[in-house]
């Protein structure tokens, strides 16, 4: 039987505990989760694509066949279709996420009817965090150790020490 695959797309600049929580939840529902680093035209990441890939791989030291990390070019739905993914997974934190996510999901459905989007609710502890707010805190010397994996916290400290 074909494995049930989900694609979890995002910019992941950087990956946070909230994203990892969504991956864990998706792994309860799917055989495999592909974390796809996609381009958001509205964002200029502080970490390079290679840095973000490595940072995510390091979250899964025993990277087994159930989690994959891949950069994607082009349309997300084309990638999902090629990889025979059953669904695109997105995390919802608050009502404020809904408008954008609704638009994205409907556009993706218009582009490719075979791939559905499913929304998973982020854990309550992560409801208020985003990559931007974490970067902003870290940029000003704030402690974000509880919000990102230890190696990501180190990378943030190093990055902002040199800016
Ligand atoms: N916990 C913590 N933070 C979370 C979260 C969670 N569970 N879920 C989302 N977020 C945050 C992210 O950190 C991010 O914060 P930021 O804006 O401060 O960086 C924000 O919510 C949403 O970003 P993210 O999940 O990284 O997605 P995105 O908006 O950058 O991604 C793409 C959009 C990449 C999926 C979209 O642009 C895309 O599909 N691009 C590919 C090209 C394509 O197909 N375009 C047509 C789309 S219709």
Q: H/E order of the elements?
A: EHEHEHEHEHH
Number of strands: 5
Which ranges are low-confidence, i.e. pLDDT below 50, for 5 or more consecutive residues? none
Distinct ligands, ions and cofactors found in the model: coenzyme A
From the alpha-carbon coordinates, what is the Rg to the nearest angstrom? 16 Å
Give the helix/strand class.
Answer: alpha/beta
Question: For the residues shown, what is the average pLDDT?
Answer: 95
Which secondary structure elements does this structure contain, and how are they paired or packed?
Layout (H helix, E strand, L loop, with lengths): L4 E6 L6 H11 L4 E6 L11 H9 L9 E5 L4 H7 L4 E6 L5 H14 L4 E6 L9 H9 L10 H12 L2
Parallel strand pairs: 1-2, 1-4, 2-3, 4-5
The protein binds coenzyme A.
Structure description:
It is a single chain. The protein has 163 residues and is of the alpha/beta class. The chain is built from 6 helices and 5 strands, in the order E-H-E-H-E-H-E-H-E-H-H. The N and C termini lie far apart (50 Å). The model has no long low-confidence stretch (mean pLDDT 95). The site of coenzyme A (COA) has 25 residues, from strand 1, helix 1, helix 4 and helix 5.
What labels would you give this structure?
single chain, 163 residues, alpha/beta, five-stranded parallel beta sheet, 6 helices, binds coenzyme A
In summary, what is this structure?
With 163 residues, this protein is an alpha/beta fold. The chain contains six helices and five strands.
């Amino acid at each position: 039987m074909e494995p049930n695959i989900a694609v979890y797309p995002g910019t992941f600049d950087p990956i946070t505990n909230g994203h990892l929580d969504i991956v864990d939840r998706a792994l309860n529902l799917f055989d495999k989760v592909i974390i796809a680093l996609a381009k958001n035209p509205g964002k200029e990441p502080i970490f390079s694509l290679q840095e973000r890939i490595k940072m995510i791989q390091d979250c899964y030291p025993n990277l087994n066949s159930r989690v994959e990390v891949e950069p994607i070019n082009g349309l997300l739905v084309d990638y999902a279709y090629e990889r025979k993914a059953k669904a695109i997974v997105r995390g919802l934190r608050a009502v404020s996420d809904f408008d954008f996510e609704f638009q994205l999901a409907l556009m993706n459905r218009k582009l490719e009817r075979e791939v559905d989007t499913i929304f998973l609710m982020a854990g309550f502890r992560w409801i208020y965090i985003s990559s931007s707010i974490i970067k902003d805190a870290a940029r000003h010397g704030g402690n974000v150790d509880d919000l990102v994996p230890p190696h990501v916290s180190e990378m943030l400290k190093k990055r902002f020490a040199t800016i």
